[in-house]
Amino acid sequence: MDEVQAQPSVSTRFGWRGAYLLASFGLYMVDQSTKAWAVRGLRFGHDRKIINGFLDLVYAENRGIAFGQLQEGGDFARWFFVVLAIAAALAVFYYFVRTPRNDDRVLGACALLLAGILGNLTDRARLGYVIDFIAMHAGSYHWPTFNVADASISIGALLLAYDLVFAGRKKSVASGP
What we know:
- This protein is of the alpha+beta class.
- It contains five helices and four strands; from the N terminus they run ααββααββα.
- The chain has helices at about 1-5, 10-40, 75-100, 105-125, 150-175; strands at about 50, 55-60, 130-140, 140.
- A hairpin with a 2-residue loop joins strand 3 and strand 4 (about 140).
- Helix 2 (about 10-40) packs across helix 4 (about 105-125) and helix 4 (about 105-125) runs antiparallel to helix 5.
- It starts with a helix and ends with a helix.
């Protein structure tokens, strides 16, 4: 009898995963909405200083990959990156489905990754480039311009890396020498 109560019901497992996917979709919509705003409000040099010397909103089109690398690939690069993003989204979704329900950090990381990957994939497939608009800097150091999807991917990847590093340590400590 105790074993039956310890196992969550199928609807509970799917319900929680559905909540993570709903949150992921919400973040995807925030990303797409902010990019649409950036096109209307920042394009053609209408940059905005938010925190002087630290945070600006500027319109940028990134035809390459992370941090503006590989900008000169043309149509081949565009569709290569689309296929790569689809493969990444499928891999993350597979990992999401295979993750135990009680592993909230990994489920949350996967939801963040999915939102970010799909947000940038939508831009690249639709427009041929990704819209970036958040520019952070300190003194003469400028972080590459990014967007909500990029932040989502970065936070999701950090959470996943944290879990992989520290979950491995917990298992090795628990199993002993």
